[in-house]
Every structure is written in structure tokens, then in C-alpha cells.
Design goal:
Helix content is about 75%, strand content about 0%. It is built from eleven helices and no strands. The protein has helices spanning about 10-15, 15-30, 35-60, 65-85, 95-115, 120-155, 155-165, 170, 175-195, 200-210, 215-245. Helix 10 (about 200-210) packs antiparallel against helix 11. It is globular, with a radius of gyration of 22 Å. The relative contact order is 0.12.
Length: about 260
């Protein structure tokens, strides 16, 4: 039987650094040269999560929906900015990403609230919104990266297609389809293997919190399908809007932005 503690001490957190020491030792042993990266990641995660913990505690204590909306809006803007950095080869990628993440978050959170799955309270909206926006950001950035690669690799074919009278949208339709597929495959594979290869965090957390197995499974299914819907919406909007940015008003390919 697993004992569930309601509080975690700094001593327990420090004790878990044994696993980080193992990771650093493995890197040094195999000369992977990522020891510094691991150390930086550990320090940053501690600082960032501690700050976020205090921010979320304040929001939970106030239980203000306006603060929740402000936090989710910040997540959307920061997520779009971060994804833009990952998709540097896509011209003017920030606005498509911003609209994609905002729409995905609004649709998915609106649906779970309409179905009365969660109450409209900070304790539910903040963690679920964070998962939705994070997954939407990852899928959209992967899709845009793939689109930029496809446009660069198929530039001569695109120009030949344009010379035959095709529009920019027609010339890149198949590239957008492949990019959308790339953005969704990781989440599709994760959903396929749920319950067989691994137990997702939400389900484990619900079980440890005392929920019945069937209720934990149902909650996890809702969240998985919510995340997949958000990923699909964000990838579709991001690639659809960014598709036009690869061309001038005269429907000629533009040079990619500098890295």
C-alpha cells in the first residue's frame, strides 16, 4: 500500500537529487558531455517551479477568475513566443502561433466547462489550462518546423507548380498535410499506448488521491482527448496561417528569415 503524504519537505526534494547525480555520472562515464546542461536544468526547474508555486498559491487563495484568465493569457503569449523561437525558419510565426494557442485553449477549456467536468475555479482551470496550452504549443511548433523544412526542401517543386498557374495554397497543400501529421503523431502515439506502456500522470495522481480506478480512467480519457483536440486545433490554425507567410503578395516564395 502506498502512503500519500500531504506535504513534501525540502529534505525529501534534496534526497531526490540522488537521481540527478546518477544522470550526471552516466553522462560523464559515457562522455556525453551534458553534465552542465543537466545541472542548469535542475537549477532552473527549481527556481522556476518555486516561483510558479507561489504565484499559483496566490491565485488559489484569491480564487479570482480574472487572475486565472490573466495567468492563462500570459501562458499563451509566452508559449507563442517560445514556439516562435523554435520555428525561426517560418516568416512572421508569432501571430499564427498566438492565435493558434489562444483558440485551442478557449475551445477546449470552454468545452470541459460546458460539460461540467470541472468547476470554473482556479484549482481546476490553472493546471488543466497549463496542460492544454503546453501540448498545443509543442504540437504547433513541431508542425511549423516541419512545414519550414518541407518548403525549403521542395522550393523548386513549389516554384514549378506556381509557374503552371497553381496558387500558393495549392502548391503547398500536401506539405501542410504532412506538417500537420508531424505535429499530431507524438500525442497520437501517447494516446495509443496509454494504459499499456505507461500510466499517465493525471490517472496516477487521481488514484493516489483516493479516486476509484474507473473514475480515474474516465478523467484521464477526458484529458487525453482534450489535449489531442487542442493539439489538432493549434497545429491546424498555425500551419494554415503560416502557410501564406512563405509567399509574397504576388505569390512568390520569400527568402527564409535569418536564424
Amino acid at each position: 500500500m502506498i502512503a500519500v503524504t500531504t506535504t513534501v519537505s525540502l529534505g525529501q526534494v534534496a534526497g531526490s537529487l540522488v537521481l540527478i547525480a546518477i544522470a550526471i555520472a552516466a553522462s560523464r562515464w559515457r562522455r556525453a558531455d551534458v553534465e552542465k546542461d543537466i545541472a542548469i536544468a535542475v537549477v532552473r526547474s527549481f527556481i522556476q517551479l518555486t516561483i510558479v508555486g507561489y504565484v499559483i498559491k496566490g491565485i488559489f487563495d484569491s480564487d479570482s477568475l480574472w487572475l486565472v484568465v490573466a495567468l492563462l493569457a500570459f501562458m499563451v503569449v509566452f508559449g507563442a513566443w517560445t514556439a516562435r523561437g523554435r520555428a525561426k525558419a517560418v516568416p512572421h510565426a508569432f501571430f499564427p502561433l498566438l492565435l493558434a494557442l489562444a483558440t485551442a485553449a478557449a475551445i477546449t477549456l470552454g468545452l470541459v466547462l460546458a460539460l461540467n467536468i470541472f468547476e470554473a475555479k482556479a484549482r481546476f482551470l490553472v493546471p488543466v489550462g497549463g496542460m492544454v496550452i503546453g501540448n498545443a504549443m509543442t504540437s504547433a511548433s513541431v508542425a511549423l518546423n516541419r512545414l519550414a523544412d518541407e518548403v525549403r526542401d521542395k522550393a523548386h517543386l513549389i516554384e514549378a507548380t506556381l509557374s503552371l498557374g497553381a496558387t500558393a495554397q495549392q502548391a503547398t497543400a500536401s506539405l501542410v498535410a504532412r506538417s500537420l501529421r508531424s505535429g499530431l503523431i507524438p500525442l497520437i502515439d501517447q494516446t495509443k499506448t496509454t494504459g499499456v506502456v505507461f500510466f499517465p500522470g493525471t490517472m496516477v495522481g487521481a488514484l493516489l488521491g483516493g479516486a476509484s480506478p474507473l473514475n480515474a480512467v474516465r478523467l484521464q480519457l477526458i484529458l487525453l482527448w482534450t489535449l489531442m483536440g487542442a493539439a489538432a486545433v493549434s497545429s491546424l490554425i498555425a500551419t494554415g496561417l503560416a502557410q501564406r507567410n512563405f509567399f509574397t503578395d504576388a505569390e512568390q516564395l520569400v527568402d527564409p528569415p535569418p536564424p
